[in-house]
């Protein structure tokens, strides 16, 4: 790989993201197809404990969901 | 009984969780298939009858054309961290999931359309065709001419600039570079094609989310100020505000998606020099963070569209 190519040289590096970013305090319910809060069983994404909204996966930009993974 | 909605995604696609909630609100049957959980899935697809029978988590389902699919799988794997046989297995599963389109149905989005739409050159050509303003652009590995003007130019990848080594994930953003730096690097730039564009600065970034004939526009700034370069580089202090774009701009973006065969698209526009310019559309673009930040109703619209089986 030509490391002097401007796009390669200027790329930003980050530690590799966690491949399984499990939200804390929650479990995945396969029967429902969604994450639930451990404590109450509520659907995580409809509670204040939901993961912080972000454009990035694990705060590491991968050019939006599913671009690389 | 209604055919179920299929959700093809990842367990960590939290937007899909919101969609699940919307479908449950509507008592719409659904099955979520995550790429991480395929060991629990049994599927058999019949190309003669265009029918798919599946079994997952004690539920059996059959889809045969009268169904909807929310597809958040990539058109191809750019940088799957799996290797060897594990990668082979994943590639084959991804291929099967894309092939389910043979059973017909209503897809948000069609895998074939996703693949075609992810080519930036195609996007820009179609955008120009429908009347959207696009920046001066050249694709290739040859700096044969400069964009008009004398300011910095925008340098981007033809495709996503992403790769891994043992320790790190590397990601390339849109670079605003000085023309002299670009010329000095011309020989190295030949080794990999790139996109060279007119640098539209100062500019205001706009994210326009389109589903069918509905649009939600969000202005992205730092405080109230424009963000120079790639706004995704900013980790703090980014402000989002819902705005209303001219109807003509919305309609051209709707027309763009129609021509690309897409129902959903995350369109990146910039407002610069007194007009709106198209940069790109992402058929798999993220929407959850804006929907939750501004309560836009995107999850609701997706739930409605998939329940009805046609675009809003």
Report on the structure:
The complex is a heterodimer of chains A (69) and B (312). Helices cover 6% and strands 17% of the residues of chain A. Chain A contains 1 helix and 3 strands. Chain A has one helix at residues 6-9; strands spanning 12-15, 26-29, 34-37. In chain A, strands 2-3 form a two-stranded antiparallel sheet. In chain A, 30% of the residues are buried. Chain B is built from 9 helices and 18 strands. Chain B has helices spanning 14-25, 84-99, 111-117, 120-129, 179-184, 186-189, 247-260, 288-294, 298-308, and strands at residues 5-9, 30-34, 41-46, 51-56, 59-63, 68-71, 106-108, 137-140, 153-157, 161-164, 168-172, 175-177, 194-198, 204-211, 214-222, 238-243, 264-272, 275-282. In chain B, strand 1 (5-9), helix 1 (14-25) and strand 2 (30-34) form a beta-alpha-beta unit. The two termini of chain B are 23 Å apart. Chains A and B meet through helix 1 and strand 1 of A and helix 1, strand 2, strand 9, strand 10 and strand 11 of B. Strand 1 (12-15) of chain A pairs antiparallel with strand 11 of chain B, so a sheet runs across the interface.
Strand order of the largest sheet of chain B: 16-15-14-17-18
Number of strand elements of chain A: 3
> Percent range for helical residues of chain A?
under 10%
The most extensive contact between chains is:
A-B, 46 and 66 residues
Question: What is the quaternary state of this protein?
Answer: heterodimer
Classify the secondary structure makeup of chain B into a structural class: alpha+beta
* Alpha carbon gyration radius of chain A: 17 Å
The pLDDT mean of chain B sits at 90
The poorly predicted ranges of chain B are: none
Terminal-residue CA separation of chain B? 23 Å
* Overall radius of gyration of chain B: 21 Å
**How many separate helices of chain B?**
9
**Basic shape of chain A:** elongated
Distance between the termini of chain A: 21 Å
Supply the number of helical segments of chain A. Answer: 1
Give the helix proportion of chain B (percent range): 25-40%
Approximately how much beta-strand content do the residues of chain A carry? 15-25%
* Largest sheet data of chain B: 5 strands, antiparallel
**Main pleated sheet of chain A:** 2 strands, antiparallel
Mean pLDDT of chain A: 79
- SSE arrangement of chain B, N to C: EHEEEEEHEHHEEEEEHHEEEEHEEHH
